[in-house]
Specification:
- The protein has 2 helices and 7 strands, in the order ββαββββαβ.
- With 111 residues, it is mainly beta.
- It has one domain (3-108): Jelly Rolls.
- A 7-stranded mixed β-sheet has the order 5-4-6-3-2-1-7.
- The chain is globular.
């Protein structure tokens, strides 16, 4: 299982949306999420049909956090043109994990 890493800290388990269908679906239909979901080739997300608030981290090509927002259900987010991927997680997770704009994240296959 992949892990989301910031510096030398493992911050969360990570799911990766690999197919076009998985990227489109994101977290729709889930009741919660314990880790995080990476959606590559993505600049904008929505929470229409979701049942819980989420934190969204927008990452540039170097996986640096260029924006971080909390979105309640039923919203359409605005695109971040500098973003190349997003990470979705339950609302409040980024604060608990100590993540903020400017952090560079990494993906590791082993913790």
């Amino acid at each position: 299982m992949p892990w989301l890493v910031c510096g030398d800290r493992v911050v969360a388990s990570l799911e990766v949306a690999r197919t076009r269908s998985e990227r489109r679906r994101g977290l729709l239909g889930r009741g919660d999420l314990t880790g995080a979901l990476l959606i590559e080739r993505c600049r904008c997300v929505h929470t229409i049909g979701m049942s819980f608030d989420i934190d969204v981290l927008f990452l540039d090509r170097q996986r640096r956090v260029v924006d971080l927002v909390q979105m309640p259900p039923g919203r359409i987010g605005r695109p971040r043109l500098s973003a190349r991927s997003v990470i979705e997680t339950q609302a409040g997770a980024c604060e608990r994990w100590g993540l903020s704009v400017g952090d560079t994240l990494d993906i590791r296959l082993e913790a």
